[in-house]
Amino acid sequence: MSELTDLSKMPFGQYEGIIMQEVPASYLHYLWQKGLKFDEHAPVALYIRTNLNALKQEHPDGIW
Fold this sequence. Notes:
Layout: H1 25-33, H2 43-50, H3 52-58
């Protein structure tokens, strides 16, 4: 799978098929905390790392 952009579709989970910019930061935070942060090759993990500053602003209550 190639690198995800804001217009790519979420590849799995509750928001599968929704474009990444529409996936709630709180859901991405949930995935991150459930261990996705340790998978350096997962496209969603790379998307989160790339957009971490914006996600922190959208979901400031999360501990990223």
